[in-house]
What does this fold into?
Amino acid sequence: MSDNPHIISSEELAGMLGRANLSVVDASWYLPAQKRDAKQEFAAAHLPNAVFFDQDAVVDPASALPHTLPPAELFAASVGRLGIAESDTIVVYDGLGLFSAPRVWWLFRTFGARDVRVLDGGLPAWVAAGLPTESGSVDPAPRVFTPRFDRQAVVYLDEMRQRVAAGDVPVADARSAERFEGSAPEPRAGVRGGHMPGALSLPFGDLASDGRLKSPAELRQAFEAAGLDPHAPVITSCGSGVTAAVINLALATLGNEKARLFDGSWTEWGSATDTPMETGPARRAVRS
It folds into this structure.
């Protein structure tokens, strides 16, 4: 295994295929504007023995928000039906390289799995390496996933209000700079444009190159350029809690396990009528 406990290369994973207690998970998810169907693409081509994790289905059924963290029992039952146990080595990938897989990496870790990795470069890197894929449906044997929910990994709206008001923990926003500034519309109806007061803009794409997570030195540079200390506590946010996890993954790669994720993210904050917001570039002190 590589020195990074959160990332695995295609070559490394290829050498592990067929091992007991290895679970490979396709976590592909796309925005409507991307006009791609993750389920259809999985049926057409996926990694050997992979299962499909539906990010629109494994959610809190009582919430109207997208991708809301499911109850622990629901998550456990869903991934158990996929043949996954919390003791497995779990490798997660997506069809863009580094987009939606970190959210499922974060979910598994939040619910108690400890050996979870993101495939570096995702499906595109796997295919580019000339490694085999399979097609068709998958019918795994069910297993038991015993959840251990890490409440501290998640920030909910009430606490988010308090943190923003106090300004005591920096907020890293993974949306595009245009959405952060409010100059580009939000993709969901009824959601205001802009950002939380005091938030800092760190588009998730700044942490990747060709669908792969950047080197530790490049990651540190990206955090510092955004005004963030890569070794300090931070709350991550995005549109609906998916790409925020790219920031969590990058921080974990640098040894920072203190990052928390605002699950409702901007969809929840921006659709509320009483939450404060700002537009324009991030306001932060200039370092001397």
Summary: The chain has a mean pLDDT of 95. The longest helix spans residues 72-81.
